[in-house]
Write a structure and sequence with these properties.
seven-stranded parallel beta sheet; two-stranded parallel ribbon; binds NADP nicotinamide-adenine-dinucleotide phosphate; 10 helices; 40% helix; alpha/beta; 292 residues
């Protein structure tokens, strides 16, 4: 099966490349060039169409996005160009090919989190900031333009590639710096390798539709930070704060835990509880067990 991964230099893109390594693979991004790779700007429909026509993918995963949540507030044009129109371009190209399946990755930030309950796929969306609004537009375009498409909403990603919450906490703990994190922001931490694994199963077996794809369960950032340090065997001084004391450009949902209801009801939810996935990342990807 020929698989095209868009956003291949990103955190999820890196793990998708690991999971799909046994397939005929084309990795694509703004800056990737080399064997089995191509530079492509998803906002440029003409060159994207050429890429699709040349490679003729049987499956496409869109892991590309403008993911800087705060920067989206000051640059909404770029946010909509990439997260909404770019996603629509990909769907248009995928739909032109016979039997090409598309998995488009979206976010828990399509919810406002105001009711303090974990969300299933059928819950009402109401994004608070530009990032979530532009991603929701992207979902709608993908669903409208590509009949054979899966939208996979995920949350709080961490992985080997790029700086992320888990790596930041470990870095501060290693340096014995104090750590302060909100205890009132709740979500479902998700290991990007686990997400890549479920995306592979969705390509092979998933019916079109919207799926929540997170590691099971949820926690506050404070509990997450404590677990990270405990699993790495690091002593750390971690203090809870309230999110209202943080200065950030973008509004964020306070409670954005997701439930993988559609996975459960269809191909089966094989995603691990968040603590188990975190343990796998810290021991296997970051080799903490092997450290003196
Ligand atoms: N990270 C999270 O916590 C989180 C949470 C929920 C959902 N998600 C979703 O999960 C997906 C993957 O996120 P991630 O954290 O892996 O993202 P990431 O590490 O920021 O990677 C995004 C990738 O998209 C590429 N990209 C940006 N604009 C592009 C364009 N115009 N054309 C082609 N490529 C472009 C980026 O390239 P450059 O590096 O060259 O800019 C980068 O490689 C995204 O859809 C995101 O919205 C992420």
């Amino acid at each position: 099966m020929r698989v095209l991964i868009l956003g291949a230099s990103g955190m999820l893109g890196f793990d998708l490349a690991r999971v799909f390594s046994g397939r005929e693979l084309l990795l694509s991004d703004l800056k990737i060039e080399g064997k089995n790779s191509a530079t492509a700007d998803i906002t440029d429909l003409i060159s994207l169409r050429k890429l699709f026509k040349d490679f003729k993918p049987e499956a496409v995963v869109n892991a590309s996005a403008y993911t800087d949540v705060d920067a989206c507030e000051t640059n909404p044009e770029l946010a909509y160009a990439v997260n909404a129109d770019g996603a629509g371009n990909i769907a248009f190209c995928a739909n032109e090919l016979p039997n090409c399946k598309l998995v488009h990755v979206s976010t828990d930030y399509v919810f406002d989190g105001l009711d303090g309950k974990p969300h299933s796929e059928s819950d009402t969306v109401n994004p608070l900031g530009i990032y979530g609004k532009s991603k929701l537009e992207g979902e709608k375009k993908v669903r409208a333009l590509a009949k054979n498409s899966v939208v996979a909403r995920t949350a709080l990603l961490y992985g080997r590639q790029k700086i992320n919450f888990v790596k930041k906490i470990l870095e501060r703990a290693e340096k014995k710096l104090p750590i302060t994190v909100p205890d009132d922001m709740i979500g479902s931490p998700t290991y990007s390798l686990e997400l890549a694994r479920i995306i592979e199963r969705l390509i092979d077996r998933g019916e079109p539709g919207i799926y929540h794809t997170v590691n099971k369960g949820w926690c506050s950032r404070f509990d997450w930070a404590k677990k990270i340090c405990a699993l790495a065997g690091l002593q750390a001084s971690i203090a809870p704060i309230k999110s209202a004391t943080l200065i950030s450009a973008a509004p964020r949902p306070l409670f954005s835990a997701l439930l993988n209801k559609k996975l459960e009801a269809t191909i089966g939810d094989t995603m691990k509880p968040w603590e188990e996935a975190l343990a796998e990342f810290i021991s296997k990807d970051l080799n903490y067990n092997a450290r003196p």
